[in-house]
Amino acid sequence: MRTYLQLIILTLGTLLSWPAQAQNVSIQAQLDRAEIKTGEQAIIDVVIRTDDLARTHFFVAENDQEPSRFRILEFGAVDTVQIDDKLREIQAKMLITSFDSTLIVIPPIVVETPSGRAQTEPLALNVIQPEVDLDHPEQFEDIKAPWGVSWGLADILELILRHPAFWIILLLAITAYSIYRYRQLPKDVKLPVASTPTREITEKPLERIERELREIEARAYWRSGAYKQFYSEVIESLKHYIYAVKGWHVLEMTTSELNDYLYRRGEDRELRTLLEGLQREADLSKFAKSTPTEGDARNSLADARSFVLRTQSLWLAAQEEADNSDIAEGRAEV
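Given the sequence above, the corresponding structure tokens read:
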């Protein structure tokens, strides 16, 4: 009888202690809003309770099933509160944004300690496009309200160079000056005839992209703060390179369309990650009023070169092997 009583007491003690251990680590997360416009930012408030503050780690679970449709701008603890002698409460915030107008699912946020592990449920955030007045489409407003930043000389020059009227006036001026100079020439003077090259020199796609990246770096757009122009040229050069090597019509694709296209074709994950990172930086500089640094621009150039280097082992090697096979078959037929 005494043995049974001891067994019952031991069993009850185990059952009562199990919930206490399970509650040593917990996590809760909540979005500050259910819907944002593309390029806007949302905050996720995270509350973590732990019995081992020094060895507590929290992170967003990875999702390898589909490409990420949002970007984490900041994620970290902002405050720590002592609950009792053992428990501590960590208050953290995650700042996210997205450029895809769709319902995005944020993976669970995981917390791990030596005594346990817990995670939140996936969160859903609806991302919509900015509203456009169909009666006055020219009055479309940007995603972000304009900041009170003074116009610099570089901004004014960029605005002038982007306006079509400037190029029309410049073309008319050059034409008028050429006609004037032609009429000033003596009648017996013959204009030099341009010599026609004997053969056309064509660049290979790899040589062309390497040359264009060197030229972009030499122009040093970061000195004038023209990061929009910098990222536009980098992304455009990479899209032309993809078209030249693979024949894919990606020149007019948006960031999400190109990422989904490469994902559906089963392209290399590292290749997709490099290109997605470059496009996100370009979108942030264009639409979210983000101000990159010279270091960010140089890192983006390094990522672009890494993308090209990665394609040499994946795309160009396979293409050369196919070309050599075609040449061998042609010789066999002869």
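The chain has eight helices and ten strands. Try to locate this feature in the token string yourself.
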